[in-house]
Amino acid sequence: MDGIVSITDMSFSYRDWLSSRADALCPPVLSHVDLALEDGSMTLILAPPDAGKTTLARILAGLIPKYMDGALSGTVMVDGHDLSKTEPWELVHCCGYVSQNPLDELIAPTCEDEIAFPLESLGMPRYEIIRHVRAALEAWGLVSMREASAQELSGGERKRLLLAVQDAVDPKVWILDESFDDLDVSWRERLMDRISSRSNTSVVFGSRYLDEFHGTFDRYGLLDGGKLSFGNETDIALEFERLCETPYAASASKSVPGFIPVSDTAGCGRSVMPLHVMEREGKEHRLSCTDVSAVHMRRSMVQERPFTLSVPRFSLLGGEVVSLCGPNGSGKSTFSRLLCGLDLPLAGTFSLDDDVASRTVLNRSVGYLFQNPDYQIFLPTVKEELAWSLKRAKIPQREIDRRVGECADLFHLDLDETPSTMSFGLRKSLQAATYYLLDRPFYILDELDSALTYATAFDLVNLLRHNGAGILLITHDRRFADALADRNYTISDGLLSEAEEGA
Amino acid sequence: MSQKQGSSNKVALRLALVAILTAVTVVFTMIVRIPTTKGYINLGDVAICFTAFTFGPWSAFIAGGLGTALADLISGYAQWAPISFIVHGVEALVIALLVRSRAGRDSAEAVVPLWRKILAGIAGMAIVAGGYFVGGGALISGFSVAAVEIPANLAQSGIGVVLGLAVSQAVRRAYPPVRSLSW
Amino acid sequence: MTTDTYVAGTGVLYRFDPRAKLLLMVLLCIWFFLPVSLAGAWLVVLGVIAAGVLSVGLRRMFRTFLTILPMLAFMILFIPFNVRSGEPLLVAGPVVLATREGLLQTLRLMSRFVGVTFVCALTIQSTPMGKIMLALRWYGLPYKASLVVSLAFRFIPFIADSFSQIKDSHRLRDPNIDEGKGRKGYRSKLGDMLPTLTSALVVSLRAVPSLAMSLEHRGFGLPGKRTSYHVLETSWRLFTDLFISTMIPVALWFLFAVR
After folding, report:
1. Chain C 131-170, CB below 8 Å of chain A: which residues?
2. Chain B residues near residue A20 by CB distance under 8 angstroms
3. Do A69 and B1 touch (CB under 8 A)?
4. Do the chains contact at B3 and A65, CB–CB below 8 Å?
5. A207 touches chain C (CB under 8 A)
6. A-B interface: how many C-beta pairs under 8 angstroms?
7. Disulfide: which of A95, A373, A408, B14 matches A427 by Cβ 3.0-4.6 Å?
8. Residue A286: inside a domain
């Protein structure tokens, strides 16, 4: 197989950290993958979450297994280099990897330094570096932010910074991991134009099939269960939707609390039993706020000043699911923090059951599932994580064991696994499970669907609703929101309001 | 066929580790504060002891020394920076050397007896108190004032040792890949 | 949390070459430790303060002064108490509280402390951190060391931000959130911090392999010579500034030395 990229019979397994042996391996993430890319071609590889696309992308860039312990077999050749014999710095001109999570990849204090760094490594003369940096900043709309630090940029701007770095270095193969995510429509078009110019070979990994992808790529591939397969666009897209259970999402019942559908992903055999609905003892709770206003610090503080978010009216009843949609940076997290009592509003009050609720009452009544589940993981096993809050509440040990066991079954968690080395989906489930055990009357789920399959996200939401809790779902995926929510709120231009039916 | 490329050139990994540990030390010194009757205890010493107990002597020296020096610079105590660099750098270096295990770094069984860790901690506390006394006395405020600060320095570094030990244990158990990061 | 040490402004101090400024800072600090007359030391301190007020402004200087106020108070309280030989000045009954020697010693140590503080503070406040690092590299600091510092500065805001979110996350999952009834001792507060500290460290350590990956992916480790995007211009200006930096302390030495 020829072409600028050629992978032959490649399999990869991560190291198993649970075992004390240095050579213990987890089940393979990728098995017998073959991939050949022609010079100047454009390939799209779709993959459901946790299918191994970031692993494959990093292997292509020569970063695995050097930086993530594991065993790689087979050959990977990029531009004539055998990656098992090449150091990553020798590949700067060959392949460029743009990560899904920009914060992982940014290394310099300012944007211009970020773009300059690889050029300095290459020994480019200074006047040329200045030229390249300026061109890249202009191409990606970052000129006004040239001296801003990464922490001050919004998610979309960080993605653009990574793309600007890539542009300046201009490697032969562009490996884009979910780069279209988080970008506004105009920037997505710009990115598509850039890779369509075919001056480089590009591989795009995605877990959402966007309309922009229609008809533009040379080859369409699907990564699932560790295997990579290619086909024509329609077949691949359909199979992908099936894997992500998207049609299932549209038809799922949303108005029967406690209904947990059987979800059986292909080959996984996992199924969840329908649960008895347990009515919450006592009355149904109601969380509401009136005339709240708060200062919202926009992520991108370089250009815009902070503005005021105002919420004239909001209410959430126990047992219902309410969604909150809005573009990035519109204030969804700000509102969530107010709702769970982490921050104080400038004006207005929050009430629980018609009594004014102090911040501590809100802390106790509203569980906020942060987007990053690692923020609360600190114990060595799932069992200890789940048991921790129960222990602090001074519940007897036998009762703790019972509840923890039941919870682990519901959420498909292995009690002896180490949380910090579990996959993202499982860590998210663990986060939901710990909150489930806290039995709060309300939950806020921040962008739950962003890295999970629809089925997993559905299951988590339904499990949390199990005891009659009210759920605020924050998402920017309208389909997901419509499938699950009884009512919808939107934020635009600093105003949070209830959306009309069908809006 | 199965190739593990981990052993080649570890420079970038060491740099990354040291840089992040330095940043952690700065953050722990500057924003993590416990209010007490006498003022604030800052948790910089916790970060330093954590680094010393979990990682090797070089990481500890640089992260401990550079971390505290940068924290001093940023919070406006630049005159203390060189002294902090040497005192906390040596403190971290000595603790790390004393708890170095003869077993392989990557082994989960690298058990160092508790008495050795406590001894290392006490040595660290002595270095901090003594170092600030000598350095502060000679270069900043005179020995009479530096002597007054000894109890406070001992208290803070004592808390650092105890919490640093606890946190080191906890992180090792919660995040096993840390074993392969030692330098 | 801000890591900015630089205070924007104009003036001679800002236009002075950073390399020369560092040299001046070191030489002046050394000067304060030399045997110079007390009056001379205080004159130089006043000169430094004046230069500071003209460059970074009175408010900034006052804020710096506030940071050293506790230490100055300590010095006034304890030094005279410890130097009690010599001509007594303040007597309370049979106990000599302060002597002339004690007072002089206090004034000397204070002048040194205030002088060194303001010299260092002014240097840091009038020079951006990037330029300081470039100056240090010119003096021979290896590239890897300056890279560690710049990486640390990149990660400090990230870790600080994660830390506060982790603290919030742990607070919300605690079943015992109370209104603060019953003040907790600091020992139990420290114990409560343990989960937050552990999570914060795990989150920070997770970033290490990605950072290393990123560095090498961007070419760190290539054998050729690295070029530099930012440079300090080397012109005749540098030499005059270096000359001035050497001359000032030497002149002050000749003026105020105690032979």
Report:
1. 150-151, 153-154, 157-158, 161-162, 165-166, 168-170
2. 107-109
3. no
4. yes
5. no
6. 51
7. A373
8. yes
By C-alpha distance, the chain A residue nearest B176 is A17
Which of the other chains make 3 or more beta carbon contacts under 8 angstroms with chain C? A, B
What pLDDT does residue C193 have? 85
Distance separating alpha carbons of residues B47 and B41, to the nearest angstrom: 13
Distance CA B163, CA B43 (A): 9
| CA C16, C17, C19, C20 torsion-angle sign | negative
**Most B CBs within 10 Å: which of A8, A16, A20, as the mutation test of the B interface?**
A20
Q: pLDDT tens across A345-385, in order? A: 888 889 888 888 888 888 888 999 998 889 988 999 999 99
Instruction: Give the rounded percent of residues in chain C with a pLDDT score beyond 90.
Output: 49
Q: Which two tokens stand for residue B150?
A: 């000894």
Take residue A25 and report the two structure tokens written for it. Answer: 């391996």
A363 inside domain: yes
Identify all chain C residues contacting B18, using CB atoms and an 8 Å cutoff. 148
> What's the farthest any 2 CA atoms get from each other in chain B?
68
Give yes or no for a contact between A403 and A439, defined as CB atoms under 8 angstroms apart: no
**Nearest beta carbon to residue B177 from set A66, A72, A421:** A421
Domain membership flag for residue A357: yes
Of C63, C117, C208, the CB nearest to B17: C208
> Tens-of-pLDDT digits for all 259 residues of chain C?
677 888 888 888 888 999 999 999 999 999 999 988 899 999 999 999 999 999 888 998 998 888 888 888 888 888 877 776 777 777 777 777 777 888 888 898 999 999 999 999 999 999 998 899 999 999 999 999 999 999 999 999 899 999 999 999 998 988 776 645 455 666 777 778 899 999 999 999 999 988 999 999 999 988 888 899 999 888 888 999 999 999 999 999 888 887 6
Total domains present in chain A = 1
Instruction: Please tell me which residue of chain C has the smallest CA distance to B55.
Output: C205
What tens digit of pLDDT does each residue of B148-177 get?
888 888 988 998 999 999 999 999 999 988
How far is A369 from A359, CA to CA, in rounded Å? 17
Do the Cβ atoms of B19 and C121 come within 8 Å?
no
For B141, residues 6+ apart whose C-beta sits below 8 A from its C-beta are: C71, C74, C75, C109, C113
Assign A2 a pLDDT band (cuts: 50, 70, 90). Answer: low
- A361 falls within a domain: yes
C 50-109 residues with CB < 8 A to B: 63-64, 67, 71, 74-75, 78-79, 81-83, 105, 109
Written as one letter, the residue type at C82 is N
Cβ–Cβ below 8 Å for A393 and C202: no
Chain A residues close to B175, C-beta within 8 Å: 418, 420-421
SS3 category, A179: coil
Does the beta carbon of B3 lie under 8 angstroms from any beta carbon of chain A? yes
Q: Identify the structural domains of chain B with CATH numbers, from first to last.
A: 12-101+113-181 (1.10.1760.20)
How many whole angstroms separate alpha carbon A35 and alpha carbon A418? Answer: 33
For residue A152, give the nearest of A198, A203, A196, A111 by alpha carbon: A111
Residues of A in contact with B109 (CB under 8 A): 20
- C-alpha angle with apex A113: A110 to A114, nearest 5 degrees? 85
Q: Print the domain residue range for A270.
A: 253-498
For strands A5-14 and A30-37, give the pairing.
Answer: antiparallel
C-alpha–C-alpha distance, residues B68 and C90, integer Å: 41
Residues of B in contact with C144 (CB under 8 A): 11, 15
Q: Which residue has the higher pLDDT, A105 or A503?
A: A105
Q: Which residues contact C214 (CB under 8 A, 6 or more apart)?
A: A104, A105, A106, A107
Distance from CA of A74 to the nearest CA of B (A): 7
pTM of the shown model: 0.89
The answer to whether residues B167 and B46 touch, using CB atoms and an 8 Å cutoff, is yes
